Amino acid sequence: MSSSIGSVMSNSYYGVTSDFFSTSLSGSSTSYLSDYSSINNGSYYKLMRSYYGGSSAAGSLVDSSKTSTTVAADKINAISVRDEATKLRDSATKLLENGSKSLFEKSTVKDAEGNETQAYDMDSIYKSVSSFVKDYNSLIVSAGDSSNHSVLSSATLMTGNTKANVSLLSSVGIKVNSDNTLSLDEDEFKAADGSSVKSLFNGTGSYGYGVTSKASQIYNQSVSQLAQYNGNLYSSTGNYNYNYTDSLFSSFQ
């Protein structure tokens, strides 16, 4: 896999071969300057993407099966890890919110006899925890396929933290599976003590706080990985990186 990435970075980039940069400019400087300008402003990337069509699995990447540039599986995985880490970070952060936005603010409820009590809205909390579990599992699967040691290390630490809280998770209907994913039992969860759920997912130092931290770390690591695969010529969003203008295209100035 690394050899194919090396080939992409050394021979061509979105159809621009090394010959483009080594060919003499005599008699055709206007043409090359025009080509350089299209690369510089990002229009060349957009043109190639439009012509060949985008890969649904890779998002902003050009479909490797239709171009001379081979898109490495590692790069596709890094995009998946980045996106799944974003989802988990967001769902975990929602459970961490305090004040008026907190899911763990008690509200007044009445029983069949009209008696009023303060209780957690377990239906709303369940929906958010269910999203958390779904996003957690998706990231575990994507990170497990990563070849990036930093991502694997962070994911391992995250699952280790989950195992360290297995008893507390079990008490609220969340089971840690043998493949490190989670499963959530709705009936057990809604029958659990709301305060126990809050202690797990809300507050600095909670289990949810730890997962948020690791998800953010994995996000940063995957973005860094994508920048390396892109050779810093284009960012992970397809924007041109002007840091390379002077060194790479100095002969055009």
Explain this structure to me?
- Helix 5 (about 75-95) runs antiparallel to helix 11 (about 205-230) and helix 7 (about 150-165) packs antiparallel against helix 11 (about 205-230).
- The protein has helices at about 1-10, 20, 30-40, 45-50, 75-95, 120-145, 150-165, 165-170, 185-190, 195-200, 205-230, 245-250, and strands at about 10-15, 15, 105-110, 115-120, 175, 180-185.
- The chain folds into two domains: about 1-70, no CATH class; about 75-225.
- It has a two-stranded antiparallel ribbon.
- About 25% of the residues are buried.
- It is built from twelve helices and six strands.
- It has about 250 residues and is mainly α.
- The model is unreliable at about 1-40, about 45-70 and about 230-253 (pLDDT under 50).
- Strand 1 (about 10-15) and strand 2 (about 15) form a beta hairpin.
Average pLDDT level: 74
Question: Measured on Cα atoms, how large is the radius of gyration?
Answer: 25 Å
Q: Which strands sit side by side, in order, in the main sheet?
A: 1-2
| Span between termini | 36 Å
Task: Compute the number of helices.
Answer: 12
Helix content: 55-70%
How many domains? The number is 2
Count the beta strands: 6
Broad shape: elongated
H-E string: HEEHHHHEEHHHEEHHHH
The chain-level structural class is mainly alpha
How many strands, which pairing sense, and closed or not: the largest β-sheet? 2 strands, antiparallel
Strand content: 5-15%
